[in-house]
Request: fold
Amino acid sequence: MDRIIAYIHAFNHVTALTPIAKQRLFDFFDFDIEKIWNTPLSTIQKVTHCHSRTLENYAVEKKSIVPESLYTSIKQYHLKIAIYPKFDHYIKTLTDEIIPYPTLLANIPTPPPIIYIRGNLCSQPLHISVVGSRKVSSYGIRATKDIVHALLQHEILIVSGLAFGVDTVVHETCINENKPSIAVCAHGLDTIHPITNTNIVHKILNFNGGLVSEFPPGFPPLPHYFPQRNRIISGLAHGTVVIEAQRKSGSLITAFHSMEQNRETFAVPGSIYHKNSEGTNYLIKQGAHSVTSVEDILTEFHLQKSLSTGIARPKLPDLSPSEKNLLNLIATSGTHGEEIALGARSLPQSELHACLTLLELKGLIHHTDGGFYYRT
Reply:
C-alpha cells in the first residue's frame, strides 16, 4: 500500500471543506497531500478563506481519521480507485485496485482527488449524461426511453445518477438494450440508494457498466451530497441532456455544471403548463440546445446517421490516436489551450502543438487569439 494513496483517501473523508476549498489547497501545495494533511490550521484558513467554524469542524474530523487504517475499507468492499492525475508523481507503487483517472473528469474545475468504482468505467468515443425529474411524467418517460434508445444505437455511453424517475428509466433502458451505463452515486459504494434500485445496480454491473462515487465507503446518502455529485455526472460526459426538471432542481444544477465545464448542454422542451418543463424551458432560454429529436444531439458532435445500418458514423478524416484524443477534449463551445494540455498531459508539448495544427488544417477545429480552441 502506498502511503500517499492512504492520505488521499483519508483527506477525502474530510467533509468540512468544500471541493473548491480542497482545490485551493491542492493548487497552493502543488498536490502534496501529506504536506496539506500536516499543515497548521492557520495556513489552511489563509489558503481556503473558510470560516472559523468550518476550520473547527475540519480539525475535529481530522482527529478521528487515521489514514493507514482507513485505506483497508477500499479492499474490504472490493472497490477500484482512480487517483487524480496530478498526484501520480507522488505515487511510487501502483496496486491492482488503481485504474486510470477519466480524462473528461480531470478537466473540470474541481475534480475529486479520488473516485471509487464498482464494476467498470467503460470507454466509448462519446459519453452523454441523461438526467431529469424524480417525479417524471408519462411524457418524460417516453422521451427518456426514445432518446436513450437512439443514443445507444450510436454506440454512445450513457451516464446518469441512479435516482428515482428519469435516472431509473435511463438505466433500465440501457439494461433492456444489453448496454453498459455509468451510475454516479451521492454516497459510499458499500450501500445502494434508493434500495429499490438494487436489482438495477446488479444488472448495470452484469452488463459491464459501473458505479462511481467520490464519497468513501460508509458515507450515507445525505441531501447535501447530491448537488455536490452532480458536477461528476456532467464531468464524466461530453454533454448533458435534461429530460424534465422543475425550476429549482438537481437536474438544473447538473446542467449548469455542464455549461461551466464547457460541455454541450441539451434540454427537452415541454408544456408551458407543466412544472416539470419549467426547468428545461428555462435552460433553453439560457443557451442550452433544444432537443426535439436525437439528431439535435448527434449534430453537435458531428455524427450522422447511416441509412443502411442506423449507426452513427463520425464525419472525420483519418486521425492518429493522439489527434482523436485531442479532438475529444475540445468542445464546440470552446476549450482553452491550458485545459487541453492538462487533458493530454502525457503528450510532449511539441507533439501536442503539431496535432492541434493538423486538426486545424483538416478543418476540424479553429482557434482564437484568446487561446480557445473550437470544434467546427
Q: What stands out?
A: Residues 306-315 have pLDDT under 50 and may be disordered. The CA atoms of residues 167 and 197 lie 11 Å apart.
